[in-house]
Write a structure and sequence with these properties.
The protein has one domain: Rossmann fold, CATH 3.40.50.2020. The strands form two sheets. The protein has a six-stranded mixed sheet with strand order 4-3-2-5-6-7, with helices on both faces. Helix 1 packs across helix 2. The radius of gyration is 16 Å and the shape is globular. 31% of the residues are buried. The chain is α/β, with parallel strands linked by helices. The protein contains three helices and nine strands. Bound molecules: inosinic acid.
């Protein structure tokens, strides 16, 4: 568990949700006349997707994937394991991947390629946060909520040891007193 004095607000709920609303409007405009399949990367993407979907006005369906990435810096290819796949065929579908944060880019680099290989009509990425400082794979999201500094963040779906996903804002974590920077 973290000390409460280690958790600091980075993006307030109001600002975050206003931005999510903007993203929803932009996506609705860009996909006018089409139907979207939202593919949420669990667990972190769930709150973002639930909020975003309310502001998308084109028809859509939702599906979910669980991936686990081995964060071993020594494996430059980055190994990603599919723990739960989507249920629907992708052929001819407009897929929008919904992710909480792009960090090294390994997860989305793998996932985008995988979904494209299934002959989707298009595969784009919508991420709530982007942390470009740590990128090792060349991943660019078409839709980004906020670009952030290289801080460990939590809230709005993002966790620390599975907790804090329910915080209604994005917070960053500072070191505990006495802990080395
Ligand atoms: P990537 O493959 O390195 O881009 O990893 C992306 C995944 O790592 C995200 O979907 C998050 O689950 C997790 N992650 C990366 N940075 C953070 C963070 O600052 N807080 C919480 N989870 C993070």
């Amino acid at each position: 568990m973290l000390d409460s004095n280690q958790i600091h607000v980075m993006i307030e709920q109001e600002r975050l949700e206003a931005r999510i609303q903007e993203l929803g409007k932009q996506i609705s405009k860009d996909y006018e006349g089409k139907e979207i399949l939202l593919v949420c990367v669990l667990k972190g993407g769930v709150m973002f997707m639930a909020q975003l979907a309310k502001y998308i006005t084109v028809p859509l369906t939702m599906d979910f994937m669980v991936l686990s990435s081995y964060g071993n810096e020594l494996i430059s290819s980055g190994t990603v394991d599919i723990k739960k796949d989507i249920d629907e065929p992708l052929e001819g579908r407009h897929v929008l991947i919904i992710e909480d944060i792009v960090d090294t880019g390994r997860t989305l680099w793998f996932l985008k390629k995988l979904l494209e290989e299934r002959h989707a009509a298009s595969v784009k990425i919508c991420t709530m946060l982007d942390k470009p400082a740590r990128r090792v794979k060349p991943v660019e999201a078409e839709y980004t909520g906020f670009v952030i500094e290289d801080e460990f963040v939590l809230g709005y779906g993002l966790d620390y040891e599975q907790r804090y996903r329910n915080l209604p804002y994005i917070a960053y974590v500072s070191k505990a007193d006495g802990e080395e920077k």
